[in-house]
Design goal:
- 3% of the residues lie in helices and 53% in strands.
- The protein is mainly beta.
- Strands 1-2-3-4-5 form a 5-stranded antiparallel β-sheet, with no helix packed on it.
């Protein structure tokens, strides 16, 4: 049996110093995936995540940021005894990645067509 899902996410970089992000997803999980009976029942679950990251390094060969996110979940009422009436998740993160190079786009190579 198939399960369906839809996902939408976005982010907004503010002055290369702060990023806010959001994600909403809808998924139909099968009862067997959640260890619930009947195994073939499709269970609709919706989750909304919002968060942000603050860059703590500038002008280096790497970027580091600290952030946090909270996820709110909605599920059918008959799952409340197992998952609670409003399951919520919170995570805190430290992100370290290579800095983007000025004037370069990751994975893209420009060709000017001029022979040198």
């Amino acid at each position: 049996m198939n399960s369906d899902s839809v996902l939408l996410e976005t982010d907004c970089n503010i002055a290369n110093k702060n990023t806010i992000f959001g994600r909403i997803e809808y998924v139909e999980k099968l009862g067997e995936e959640l260890a619930l009976l009947p195994a073939g029942r499709k269970i609709p679950i919706t989750a909304l995540t919002i968060g942000g990251i603050h860059e703590v390094t500038t002008g280096r060969t790497y970027q580091a940021g600290v952030g946090a996110s909270v996820t709110f979940n909605w599920n059918p009422g008959d799952l409340n005894p197992v998952y609670g009436s409003s399951p919520t998740g919170l995570w805190v993160l430290l992100r370290i990645r290579p800095a983007t190079m000025a004037g370069h786009t990751a994975g893209m190579h420009m060709y000017d067509g001029i022979k040198h």
